[in-house]
Every structure is written in structure tokens, then in C-alpha cells.
Amino acid sequence: MKYLYALLIFVPIAIAAELMHASPIVIFALSAAAIVPLSGVLGAATEELAGHTGPTIGGLINATLGNFAELVIAALALRAGLIDLVKASITGSILGNLLLVLGAAQLAGGLKYRSQRINPNLAGLSSTLLVVAVLGLVMPAVFHALHPDPLRVATVRVSAWIAGFLILGYALSLVYSMVTHKAAFNEGGDVAHHEEKPHWSLRKAIIVLVAAAATIGVLSEFLVGSTEEAVRSLGLSEMFVGLILIPIIGNAAEHSSAVLMAMKNRMDLAVGIAVGSSIQVALLIAPILVFLGFAFDQPMDLAFTIIEVASVAVAVGVASSVMQDSESNWLEGAFLLIAYAAIGVVFFFF
């Protein structure tokens, strides 16, 4: 993780580039490079803050701030009216975490250990929540297809109701895994991890968290502001940028953590990071963006394109399949990466 912090040098450089009105491509690239390590700093501060608040509140803090950078980028893009980019980033984050991150973690861990165990309770709950996530994407798309609505008013209304149900489902899953059935999810030797004492004072953790969050907000503004021009200059589609680049930028630090945990034979944590992030995006981040759309006067629905829904459904099916036996090996990881590459190629030429 420490090597990512070397990229913090791009923070002042990105700010200087914006102040000097550099080209959109330069601002986009520098802002992206700066957000990556800041996400890691935010994650570290969140972990330290969680250590001061106890396992239950700490787990809630981690769950809430896990995708903060991505939420900020998506919210700013939504405010700017880049709704297709926002939807693509939601799809891309789910795909990236389920296929790229989980696949890389299984491959890295499997090359070091012949086989790794996954807590069956974690695997079972994750699979259930992923199916609910697919439901939340499929039903608005089906409704929109069967109920032609040029202004999408009815589709937005349906999406708002579904968004509320998804947030409720996510909240209930947190209560289940962190309160009523907490012991079932502490099997497999990861209990000690949750009991580690914080290395920072509470004051330092809060200051670093607030500073990192504020800086991410500023840089995300630069990133979103330069996206349209940068996309045109690079000849890339808005969907490809949203599906591939934005999720990687927002979650790079978290991605590396999942791989490192797998290499330390802590596969439960690796799965929790990768799959948990996908679940959070589908059940919390996407619904929040639907409601933010009303606040920004940029109504957004959950009616994704057929190719996006199909890709997420396939990813959920493949990820659930590799977790169902509660074991992990390098071959499963390799096939997840192959699936991600295949989907990426399709969207590149879409």
C-alpha cells in the first residue's frame, strides 16, 4: 500500500494544472493519479477511526465510507448532467470488483497457497445480496422496455421506490452481519484483525479523514470538469470511461488491499473488500445517486442498457459460482480475469 502514497505528489501538481488552465487531458490524468493515493489515505483514516469506536460502529464507518471517492465522482458527474457516465461507472464498479478485484485476489492468493477457505456464511450472504442487486437493475430496465416513456418520468418514479427498498435491504444486511449474527462472520481467524488497536489518535484520524475527503472532493471536481473534453480528445466512448477508468480511479487503493489480504491467506477479508464493495455500490451508492438526481434537478433512473444488465448478471453468476464451494484457487481467479477482459473488449468497441 505504501507505494501508492508516492503518488501523493500528483495532488499539488493536479491543483497547479487546474489553476494554470492546462489541457483537459492533462488535468484528467493528473487528477486521476492524485485521487488514487488519496483513496488509500481515506481508507487508512477510516480504519483508524473505526478502531476507536468499537467493532460494530467501526464496521458501519467502514461500510459507509468504503466507496466515498467513487460516490463523490459520480455525484459531481450527475450534477453536471453526465447521467450515462454515472450509470456506466455504477456498472463498471460492480463488474470491476466482482471480476477484476476478486479475480486478482484469488489468482494472487492461489499462486501462494494451494487452496484458500472462504467463510460459507459470508459467501452465502454475498450471493443473496448480489441477486437482489441484479433484481434492482433488471426490473427498472424491463419496466422501461415494456412501458415506453420518452421523458422517463414513470421510470424515474419506479426507480426511486426500488432505490428505497435497496437501501433498506443494505441496512438490514449490516444489522445481520454486524449485530445479530456477528459471530458467524468472525469465523476463519479474522477476529484478531478486528481487534487490532489503532496506531493513530482519534483526533489525528478525524483530521486526516476530513482533509482527505475534502481534497478528493476538489480533485473530483477537476476530474469531472475535464472528462468530456478528455474523452473526445482520446477518442474513447463515455461508456468505456465510466465502466473501466472511473471505477479503477476511485477504488485502486481498495483493490490493492484485497490482493494483499489474499496473499496473507486472509481470503475472507479479500472477499469482503471485493464483493462487499460491489454490494455497496448496487444497494447503497446507486440508490443514493437516484435521490441526489432529484436534488440536482437531474433525474436519474435505474434503467440500465441491456448490455449493462446482461454483463452484471453474468458477473454475479460467475462470482457466486466460484464462491459456492467456500474455497478459492488460482484457476478460478484466472477465469474471473478472463471474463472481465472479455466484457471490457465488448464495451471498448460498443
Task: Explain what the structure shows.
- The protein has 350 residues and is mainly α.
- The chain has one domain (2-348).
- It has 14 helices and two strands; from the N terminus they run H-H-H-H-H-H-E-H-H-H-H-H-H-H-E-H.
- It has helices at residues 2-5, 10-19, 24-53, 55-65, 68-79, 83-112, 120-146, 153-180, 191-194, 202-234, 238-263, 267-295, 306-323, 330-348, and strands at 116-117, 327-328.
- Strands 1-2 form a two-stranded antiparallel ribbon.
- Helix 6 runs parallel beside helix 11, helix 7 (120-146) runs parallel beside helix 12 and helix 8 runs antiparallel to helix 12 (267-295).
- The radius of gyration is 19 Å and the shape is globular.
- The model is unreliable at 189-194 (pLDDT under 50).
